[in-house]
TrEMBL record:
One of its GO terms (biological process) is reductive pentose-phosphate cycle. Pfam families: FBPase (PF00316), FBPase_C (PF18913). GO terms for cellular component: chloroplast; cytosol. Belongs to the FBPase class 1 family. It comes from Deinandra increscens subsp. villosa. The keyword Magnesium applies. It is an enzyme of class 3 (hydrolase). Residues 87-278 form the Fructose-1-6-bisphosphatase class I N-terminal domain. This is fructose-bisphosphatase. GO terms for molecular function: fructose 1,6-bisphosphate 1-phosphatase activity; metal ion binding.
Amino acid sequence: MSAPIPISPATTIFSTTSNSIIPPHLLSPSHLRRHETQPHITTGKPPISSLSCQAVAGAGAAGAATPNKKKKSRYEMENLTTWLLKQEQAGLIDAELTIVLSSISLACKQIASLLQRSSIINITGTQGTINIQGEDQKKLDVISNELFCNCLRSSGRTGIIASEEEDVPVAVEETDSGNYIVVFDPIDGSANIDIALTTGSIFGIYAPDEQCLVDYDEDTLDEAKEKCIVSVCQPGSNLLAAGYCLYSSSVVFTVSIGNGVHGFTLDPAYGEFVLTHEDIKIPKSGRIYSFNEGNFDLFDPKLQNYLNHLRKPGGPAGKPYSGRYIGCLVGEIHRMLLYGGIYGNPDNEKAKNGNLRLLYECAPMSYLVEQAGGKAIDGVQRILDIEPKQVHQRTPIFIGSPDEIDKLMSYLA
């Protein structure tokens, strides 16, 4: 018999061939061999895997014929960083895009923190400036835009930035590699800030464009800007990724990289976005509609007929649709992805092209909704097929559950 292996008295060893505990003084090297190297005696029971701790569960578990399916731990969670790395390993995105998305999530965390403390640190109200669209800028509009730009610059993977708050696209000179084009609205629904209602951030990411990799000096600055504008103005169908961050009772970062829509909720205890809404699918229909009906008399008569139809009792419960209007595109789309329905920001007599910007509001949101199984149109054509002519171009939009968009089209035809 082989000599025993010396083990301290405090050591506890489990048998590889039975569910009993072997006293240290009886231990020999044969007890440390893997189970598959030992001859198997047919007993009608499956072999127990090597170095198993199953005996701790008690004698009653020893005779179980099949192992129980592993249950997900209440403490098990997947954060955004881990999820992005998995997508990279699967070949769905590259390392450069992973870094860009991580930098955007960091900007969203910073904005969320500022919004929670905005009244306390006196950053509510207007800045006293007007953006390129002629709109009064809130203090947080300017601050959030700067946060987004700084995070994207520091990533070293962004070549061009186009923002609602910038007159023209900005070329990033600090680029190391990647050169992605990022378009964004840093604060959507900024009118809600001062009264602590829902706001959000919207972003879209396009592939790198080599024609904007030029040397920036005073002699070529205007030419470089023109090239950047050309490369930024792409249809939404060219998007590589898009998403939004909702700032409300929870902070929710929702993103698509072309394989569905996934939502991550910020856990304030850890400061991490945790996967809470995996592979979101918008309901095929919904009983919620969202239009600014203060402009009802300015809408096209066909659209008025459609809205009048929604107000009439109908459906299985014999009730009209519920009208909801938040004044924040992010909030409208987030609710719609989960509950279904339709959102509209149409053209009217005072806004011939609608109120929302195509490049960094409508296109990213349309990309998300289509990835979730919904539809988005301008009343005539698919939003993602529109070729932008200007960076701050506006467009009408109707977006939501596929059945609801089809019903609207039957009225607009």
